[in-house]
Design a protein that fits this description.
- The protein is mainly alpha-helical.
- The chain is 83% helix and 0% strand.
Length: 72
Amino acid sequence: MTFVQALIAFIVVYLCVYALISRICQCIEHCATAKAYSTLKENGVSVSLENLQKTINKFKEKPDVEQKATEK
């Protein structure tokens, strides 16, 4: 096997492994999103984008408990 053939084989194997790992990570991400969505639905939280943005903003406005503890 020449150097060029070895280089091409390495690149092909690298791309295949990269694609496989990428698909696995995408699957994990989608599963986590679906699980979080179902948890929100079970707890009665409305999952419309407007309501989610309001909820996120509400939590951002609250001061951190850790910041209060370090200030004292």
